[in-house]
Design goal:
By secondary structure, this protein is α+β, with helices and mostly antiparallel strands. The chain folds into 2 domains: 72 residues, no CATH class; 199 residues, no CATH class. It starts with 5 loop residues before the first helix and ends with a helix.
Length: 365
């Protein structure tokens, strides 16, 4: 495990950027291209209504962002707020919530900026801002679950955090399950189909700082716990990992962990019975509200990576995080007896010095 050097492997993988996709993701928030050097072309002869209703609406977000850089006219057409609102709503149905519509409209460029924040991948390293920066009093969670491109669940929750209690966001209580229309697995093939088909998005939003970040890997980072054979429950784990502290500290890397539980109903279909989010340090300790807000805020202020490959990137980061965590735990267990022995040696030395001083004072005085 030590020779595999997972930390370097993780950083190396994160640095492998797709330049074209990075450019497209950055273009979502770019200013309009300069008019200098432009001239009339064939696109100018096309009526704006045709471009808006028959062309731009057929483009995916990345292509739309790239098209906006072609000319000032296309930038103006692609900046239409309704166009990006529809894209946000179709990608994440939760964004159609009244509270979120109001928050998204306050972003610098409205839904276009929000999409850029929520669609791009948070970079491995968080912002270089200090940990004691002013943090929002709370966050908004926008969660969506799809199965094989079919929307099955959405919810928006506002969370107020406290300084001392562990940071945790619970979307559902077990007593309020949500039907999914997914049949309960009865064999390995159905089980794998559920694992591959369920996609979860968890967007954290700072309504004051007008920033957002998607902290889910979209697809599970590990195989589900096989409780469906005995209890009828399927537990899926999603995660996103980024650096939040100094090298060697417990906050060197932090895991945003999402757990989704699907239970069997009497009708034979799966219900969403529980969805929760928490933050863990390198030793698996759940972080408290104050620390979590600071780390998440730093992540929101940090750089963003390419827009493709989130599922693979999420798994790579999670696997490397687990390896580094095991190394830290092993080293910690090795250091414990060493530290204990060092403490005993120090106490013995102090006691010997005390006895020596006592004898000297007793003999001469």
């Amino acid at each position: 495990v030590m020779n595999s050097n997972p930390k370097n492997h993780l950083i190396e993988k994160v640095k492998q950027k797709d330049d074209l996709q990075s450019l497209a993701s950055n273009q979502m928030d770019m200013d309009p291209p300069s008019l200098a050097g432009t001239s009339s072309s064939s696109i100018s002869a096309v009526h704006p209504d045709i471009i808006e209703t028959h062309i731009l609406t057929r483009l995916d977000p990345t292509a739309l962002a790239s098209a906006s850089c072609a000319s000032s006219r296309l930038y103006s057409l692609t900046s239409n707020e309704t166009l990006w609102t529809n894209i946000c709503n179709s990608t994440w149905p939760s964004t159609n919530h009244p509270r979120l519509r109001h928050v998204i409209s306050s972003f610098p460029k409205g839904p276009r900026s929000f999409f850029s924040h929520a669609f791009t991948n948070p970079d491995m390293a968080t912002s270089s801002s200090p940990m004691n920066l002013d943090c929002p009093p709370g966050l908004i969670s926008a969660v969506d679950i799809h199965f094989q491109e079919r929307h099955i669940f959405s919810k928006v929750v506002e969370t107020e955090t406290t300084d001392s209690s562990p940071f945790r966001v619970d979307l559902l209580e077990t007593k309020d399950p949500v039907p999914t229309g997914i049949p309960h697995p009865v064999n390995e093939e159905m089980y794998r189909e559920i694992l591959e088909g369920l996609k979860l998005s968890w967007i954290l939003i700072d309504p004051i700082g007008r920033r957002a970040m998607n902290v889910s890997s979209y697809k599970p980072v590990t195989a589900a716990e096989r409780r469906w054979l005995s209890t009828g429950e399927v537990h899926l784990r999603y995660a996103w990992v980024f650096s939040a502290g100094q090298e060697g500290s417990s906050l060197e890397y932090v895991k945003c962990g999402v757990t989704a539980t699907f239970s069997a109903s009497h009708t034979g279909e799966m219900h969403v019975s529980k969805v929760s989010l928490h933050l863990e340090d390198m030793f698996g300790k759940h972080l408290n509200g104050k620390d979590s807000l600071a780390i998440l805020h730093k992540g929101m202020m940090g750089k963003r990576g390419v827009v493709k490959g989130r599922e693979e990137e999420g798994r790579r980061r999670y696997d490397a995080y687990k390896k580094m965590r095991r190394i830290k735990i092993i080293l910690g267990e090795v250091r414990k007896p060493l530290n204990r022995q060092r403490t005993l040696d120090t106490l013995f030395l102090a006691f010997s010095v005390f006895i020596f001083v006592f004898l000297v004072l007793h003999i001469f005085f």
